[in-house]
Amino acid sequence: MGAAPPPSPPKKRSVTIAGHETSIALEPIFWTALEKAAADADLPLNALVARIDAQRLEASPPANLASAIRQWLYARTLAGE
Question: What positions does the domain Ribbon-helix-helix occupy (predicted)?
Fold first, then answer.
């Protein structure tokens, strides 16, 4: 396995969830992983984020969306996907 890229600040991007735009700030390594996960699932990025958002809203209290995405990606990594 190669070395991890150096830490970098979060980058804000807009996504559309249920017809509403929202900004999400994630570090570039997470944006790359999220884009790959969307491609692997044959989904648009917005659709994958909407799925993660729906899952996060089931928690009490729900995590913020950026944290939920990072946790979802980590769980995906642990599952070997």
Answer: 10-74
